[in-house]
Structures are given as C-alpha cells and as structure tokens.
Design goal:
- This protein is an alpha+beta fold.
- 36% of the residues lie in helices and 24% in strands.
- The chain is built from 15 helices and 18 strands.
- The strands form 4 sheets. The chain has a 5-stranded mixed beta sheet, covered by helices on one side.
- Strand 14 and strand 15 form a beta hairpin.
C-alpha cells in the first residue's frame, strides 16, 4: 500500500502516524515544504521518500509530487494529512489520482458551516438559527428575528479564527467596516456548555473508537479574550452526546476517518449541534486519547488503514485533563509548583507551538486521574491567578 502523507511534521505529534503506518507494512511517502534535514529522525526513518515542494499552496506542485510518486511506486492508495487546513487539497488530489477517500465533491457540507446545518437538520439534530450575511442590512434583518448577541464567523473557516460575538449595533457596524473579504455566517448566540464527540471510523463507517471532551469556555472566547483554558476527557461519556455523535457520523457518511464534532448542551438538556470537523481534534488531544485509555491511537489508525481492524481495548481508565496557560497571565503557582504538589498525576508538560498558542495556551500540562474531582482540584490549583 502506498500512503501519501501531506505535511507529516505538523502538528508536532503527527510524525507518529508515519511511524506506525510503516510498522503496519505501509509504504509511506510524504510531501511538505520543510527541508528534509529539519525533519525529526523518527519521521525520516519512517518515510520511504520525502518530496519537498516550495509552496504547498501551489496545487500544481502538489500534483507534480503525486505524479512523481505514481511513476516511481505505482498507484497511490491513500492521500491524507489529517489536517483541516489541507482538507481541500487532500480531496482534490484524491480525485485527480483516483484515490479512495473523500473527493472534492464530497466535502462541501464538511467545509461550509451553512451546509453543515442542513445535514444536521436532516439528521434530526437541533442547530442554532443562522444565515450567511453579505450586507449590513441582511444582518440587521436577521438580528430582528433572533436578537443580540449574535456570533459571526467565516462560513468556510478553520477553528475559531476570525470569530466574534456581537453584542450591539455599534459592534455590528464595526464588524462590517473591518471584516475580511469572506462569506460570513451569522448565528444566534447559544448559552450552553461545549461538549465534543470525537473518534475514528473504520473503512465501513463503523465507529471503532470514541471519546468526548468537556470545555470550561468556548475556543472563541479563549482566542479573542486571551484567556487560559482547560478541557478534559471524562471516563464516562455523556449518553446524549454519544447519541448525537452517532447520528452525525451516519449523516455525513464518514469512512476511515477521524472526526471531531462540537455540540452545545443547554441547561434544559437540549443538545444543539455546532460544527463538524473530519479530522482529529487539535492540540495534544490524540495523545490524551492514549493517556486516558492506555492505548496507541496512531497504531490503531494504521491498522484500520492497512487491515480494517481496531484491536485496542477502550478501557477508559482515567479522566484526562489539558491545562493551557498563557505566558502573560500571572499565576499564583508555577509549573514546578504543580509538579511538586501533583507530580503523580502530571503525565506531560511542554511549550506549545506559537501557531496553536492563541487557542490552547503557551504552555500545556496534561494530567490524568481516576477520580474526576481530584482532576478538577489540580486544574483549580494550576490556573489560580495572583
């Protein structure tokens, strides 16, 4: 099997995919714009060949790289980045080289939030009222229907980038005077807690791994307000979130893919579908899956690709917490204080890539506990401000 992996060095933990694919007997070929010399040794050792392009945004260079691989190694069996930013590039290349997986015609409902809403509704899931708005007058008309505040974000966007909460007419005018030349969707503001349903499907679309995350605040608020943040993977998955997630997987027809779905859970128990991402959750969450279950999700992904089997036992032994601290916030306790007082629970801590820092913090601490309240106690200690 020839597997072409795009940008295998970002995020930093993605080299593990290539390592495990090679161990599973897959011929791993990679494309990127980073020099080969700068790749970590584990990644180099897992690759049969690396094709460097000057600019991954130049689709002709990506086509040329895949053409070269086809000429040298035969038919390409998979093209993947597991990265939302390259979702469209992956899909275009699959279509051009007749490779199994999502094609460019398949991903419209997975890229555009307005289209996601249509699929959610067809699946019987609640959604926030929303409308694509180009002009101030359209926005005013929509706000007359739903009231302030509203949330506005690119209809086709990655994460919480360029996402705003608008509270009044002055902020609305300011948004339209300064917005980028993009299509934006405006939605009613939903006051609920964010839960996710995350996992992996096999080649037949069966969910072979699932998990969930609970957030203290929304990513939009974290990015725009410069907040620190935490989230955790609970040992017990909320049954209503799992049910919504299963409906979402079926509605979008996902096969041999990681997924990351976001929902609001309201005080009255209603679940409101927010967003679909057909890639793994960001940051260090893949590693948190491993820590929470004592498995290797990278290895299991490789087995699904090569043999369509997922063999690991999903034990859910631990609650796994991520704490993202910001450099400019004055914390009462240092990282060393956290480790000295709770070292038995801290499984990893490290500086975060600057490109991810606005969303998940400049410094990340991962801990796991059998007892949920103990984890929350450590979070409170680590995030206490002066």
């Amino acid at each position: 099997m020839n597997f072409v992996f795009l940008s295998p060095y970002f995020p930093n933990n993605y080299y593990n995919f290539c390592v495990e694919l090679k161990k599973a007997g897959v011929n791993v070929l990679a494309i990127g714009d980073k020099s080969y010399e700068d790749l970590r040794s584990e990644l180099k050792d897992s690759l049969t060949e690396y094709y460097r392009v000057d600019n991954m945004e130049d689709y002709s260079q990506m086509q040329k790289a895949c053409g070269y691989f086809t000429y040298k190694y035969g038919k390409i069996d998979r093209i993947e980045s597991n990265n939302e930013y390259w979702l469209e590039t992956d899909a275009r290349l699959r279509k051009d080289f007749n490779v199994k997986g999502l094609k460019i015609d398949d991903i419209e409902a997975m890229k555009y939030k307005s289209k996601m809403k249509e699929v959610f509704n067809q699946a019987g899931l609640n959604t926030a009222r929303g409308k694509v708005v180009d002009q101030l007058e359209e926005a005013e008309s929509f706000i007359e229907e739903v009231g302030y505040p509203v949330v506005v974000k690119p209809d086709n966007g990655v994460g919480a980038a360029d996402t705003y909460k608008i509270n009044n007419y002055e902020e609305l005018v300011n948004f339209f005077e300064n917005k980028l030349d993009l299509d934006y969707i405006m939605e009613e503001y939903i006051d609920g807690r964010i839960y996710t349903f995350d996992g992996l499907t096999d080649q037949n679309g069966k969910i072979v791994f699932s998990s969930s995350m609970v957030f203290n605040d929304g990513i939009m608020e974290t990015v725009n307000n410069g907040l620190d943040m935490f989230y955790y993977i609970p040992r017990e998955l909320p049954a209503d979130i799992v049910e919504a997630g299963r409906k979402t997987v079926e509605a979008f027809g996902l096969k041999e893919r990681f997924f990351h779905f976001e929902y609001f859970k309201m005080d009255d128990g209603r679940i409101v579908a927010l967003e679909v991402n057909v890639r793994p959750p960001g940051g260090l969450t893949l590693d948190m899956f491993n820590y929470a279950n004592d498995i290797d999700v990278y290895r299991e992904y490789a087995r699904v690709v090569q043999h369509n089997v997922f063999e690991a036992d999903i034990s859910r032994k631990y609650n796994c917490f991520y704490i993202g601290r910001k450099n400019f916030i004055n914390y009462k306790h240092s990282v060393n204080d956290v480790i000295n007082n709770y070292g038995e629970y801290v499984i990893r801590h490290e500086e975060i890539s600057p490109i991810l820092a606005p969303a998940i913090g400049d410094y990340g601490i991962i801990l796991r506990t059998e007892n949920l309240e103990k984890g929350k106690e450590i979070v409170e200690y680590a995030m206490k401000h002066v």
